[in-house]
Amino acid sequence: MPLKLKLHTKPEVPLEADCVCPDRMQSLNMTEIEDLIVFHGNCQVPLKNFFECSGEFDGEIDIEGDLVNVKHIASTMSFGKMTVSGNVGVHIGAAMSGGEIIVEGDASDWVGPEMLGGRITIKGNAGHMVGSGYRGSTMGMQGGEIIVHGNVKNETGHVMRRGLIVVGGDSGDFTGVNMLAGTIIVLGQMGIRAGAGMKRGSIICQTKSELLPTFTRSCDYQPSFLRHYFKHLESLGLIISDSLMNSPFERWCGDSIELNRGEILLYAGK
Amino acid sequence: MKIKSTTIVDTFAEAFKMYGSRVIITADSKEWAMAAAQSITGFATSVIGCKCEAGIETIINANDSPDLRPGVSVLIFAMDAESLGKRLMERIGQCVMTCPTTACYNGLAGGSPVMVGGKLRYFGDGHQISKVIDGFKFWRIPVMDGEFLVNDEFNVQEAVGGGNLLILGKDQKSTLKAANAATKAMSQLTDIILPFPNGVVRSGSKVGSKYKKMIASTNDAYCPTLRGVVKKSELDDGINSVLEIVIDGLTLEAVEQAMRVGVMAAIKPGIKKISAGNYGGGLGQYHIHLLKLGFEN
Prior knowledge:
The complex is a heterodimer.
Chain A: E1 3-7, E2 15-16, H1 22-25, H2 30-34, E3 37-40, E4 43-46, E5 51-55, E6 60-64, E7 70-71, E8 81-85, E9 100-103, E10 119-122, E11 142-148, E12 162-167, E13 183-186, E14 202-205, E15 216-221, H3 224-235, H4 242-245, E16 249-254, E17 262-267
Chain B: E1 2-3, E2 6-8, E3 12-26, H1 30-40, H2 47-50, E4 53-60, E5 71-78, H3 81-96, E6 103-106, E7 112-115, H4 117-120, E8 129-133, E9 136-143, E10 146-151, E11 153-169, H5 172-186, E12 192-193, E13 205-207, E14 216-218, E15 241-249, H6 252-266, E16 271-275, E17 286-289
Parallel strand pairs in B: 2-16, 6-10
Antiparallel strand pairs in B: 1-2, 3-5, 3-6, 3-11, 3-17, 4-5, 7-11, 8-9, 9-10, 11-15, 11-16, 12-15, 13-14
């Protein structure tokens, strides 16, 4: 039976709840869990002031309620499973290294910043800076997978180093900006300046997109590796059309102001 | 034991511990996948002279293949894991990477990994790209028709080599017909290969030779032309042709099953005996007794 947390009082100011994480809760009894400290604005308060706790931790945590003002859930998570039935606030899964987070609703900015491993699935939309590095950091996401079924905003995969980000809908501007390596797949449309400053890595987009002049067209071809990604995405519940599976892609290399070892693959089917 | 007019000799096949791997080759068409498969399994009949033994295991439909393209599954065997790793790198590099439109994947879930794509990647001269997809690492190596995709590592596992059957017939024609029937039936099975041409070998060997440099030489006890010449021939009067089928498998059970199927298919008019080759039992780790394979007469 999973541990269940139900939000009974909506926080008026952001609630920092990095203690809501399997790593922190695994060896605690119910009283200890209820007394875990969260930051409500600048005040330290027990978790029970906002959440009703029930069940027993068996590796899974189910959270219910509108958590749009709750930050840092599952930060540094390394194992287990967490399901959020609703929306969630910023910094979910920050620096997580294992386990799985599923958000049934939307997520705010900074989903999985500097993530190392595991998987985050957002069934709705997500905000800016998905899988990115914090300002000043040299590396963003370094492993694992972030799957957003809806749209995302700007700077997805900023300084990303490794791993996979999938956007089922559209992505905002500067997708993969300053990317170091890794893979970003956008099944909708990309905003402007995708891959700006990227050194290595792959950005794949199902639609045609206007690219920066520092990208050079290489060829049209059918990369075998994409079929593996598409098969994997189908297994995760995303819909991949036959035409996409069998389509050629236009390969652009760049960014030539950097190493020029990155690539943007744009759908070239009819 | 006699089944119809064929005697199943009370003897055993002496098989050896080997290491095996499964290589999945896909391509844009089954013809190109098969071309690469035939190339990678070429000159791989016996470890004695070829350093490895290889064969085509099965054809894979596009829907069941790793990248949804037509594929062929190939098994390769060698005497130890290290040399198998070398053979994989050589053969995938020379026979699959060179073949248009192909990609090459590890086909074993268990066993221990040996690096293959991780070494072949250097052919990319710095332009190679790695990708980790669903926990598996691949290398994308740029080639002139696009990219060659290969797993970073291939698994190798303990396997069984040298399972065998000897078909002793009244003449070459009936013996060949029986051998063909046996290999056709055995080819339907998975986890095994028959590494010799069309699955059949006529030059069976014994250990050693009168010549010091030779580690193996013709199996004179089963050569019909040497009856009356050698001290101990295994051939009765009326046996004028012998053919051998060698089986390598990923498991002992798979080899035994193949031998069982092969024996039953080879029982045909003109086949006097079905036997098996061994070296007295002192060399091979596995003794597969024909009469324990579970026949009913």
